[in-house]
């Protein structure tokens, strides 16, 4: 069997990483957030809207404003639906780009 057809071993991968050198940069959390926010800004916006509606709704419930609390819980459901829709659309667009 020729060497070209052999399965690479673990040591081959280590040597490949060494050969690549510092060209492979590790992303910081902030850099990753900025990149992901640029790709699909609607997901973090939906998450913030969901958290805001939930927090304010719980506060209204605690202070005895039940009608406003119920309205905020309904807004939370709408914000969650928006977030899920944004996630699904983002995944579909990313998958469509990778197929091309």
TrEMBL record:
Assigned keywords, A-Z: Membrane, Transmembrane, Transmembrane helix
Chain ranges of the HIG1 domain: 7-100
Name used for this protein in its record: HIG1 domain family member 2A
One Pfam family matching this protein: HIG_1_N
GO terms for cellular component: mitochondrial membrane
InterPro entries: Hypoxia_induced_domain, RCF1
Top-level lineage group: Eukaryota
Transmembrane segments: 42-61, 73-95
Xref: PANTHER family: HIG1 DOMAIN FAMILY MEMBER 2A, HYPOXIA-INDUCBILE GENE 1 HIG1 -RELATED
Keyword Metal-binding attached: no
Major subcellular location class: mitochondrion
Gene that this sequence comes from: LOC106121983
Coiled-coil regions listed: none
Signal peptide start and end residues: none
Protein's GO biological process: mitochondrial respirasome assembly
